[in-house]
Amino acid sequence: MKETSSEPCRVVVLSGPSGSGKTTIVGRILSDASVPIEMAVSATTRPPRDNEIHGKHYYFMSSDEFEKSRISGEFVECAEVHRSGYWYGTLKSEVDRIQNSGRWVLLEIDVEGALNLMQIYPEAVSLFLKTPSADEYESRLRGRGTESEEVIQRRLRTAAEELKSADKYRYQMINDDLDRAVQEICTSLESR
Ligand code: 5GP
Asked: What domains can be seen in the chain, in order of their start residue?
């Protein structure tokens, strides 16, 4: 799984607090990058939301299934995200499948998982997405209207924690200008 010097690892890992606009950025990277790139589908123990499809948005697993996969080393990284009680993880098989098809792998994962992933892929292009102000995190999060107050409060606390790790990423971006943020990311991929 480790990168060799003759074969670049071609992994892009994107993190940022909830409400920082990661989903939008992901969509734009997939459509605008001039290198072939595919999003890795993560596994999770979180139940699917209404519009979510197994194998497309996530591989939905029971806690037992996830634990078995974790113990047998099927994950590149995994973490209990946002202290939600739900586990999320990147499957090795998913990374291999995408890399073997000659594409870059795009991962949108939490900070804990991303820091672990950077140990395994030190050459990964790591991106931390910020919003212009702390207040804006909150209004974007509330604007989605999908989370309960309890979840919002937990995510805000996690966001403050996650911000402390921003300088461990290769690039930090402020999502106040979407086009510029996407262009910066795409240029950094093309120059590799
Ligand atoms: P949601 O439940 O809203 O789909 O995702 C919650 C968070 O889980 C996201 O902010 C995302 O960063 C994180 N996440 C999604 N997939 C993975 C993964 O494979 N590993 C880790 N560590 N975090 C993930």
From this structure: 11-190 (3.40.50.300)
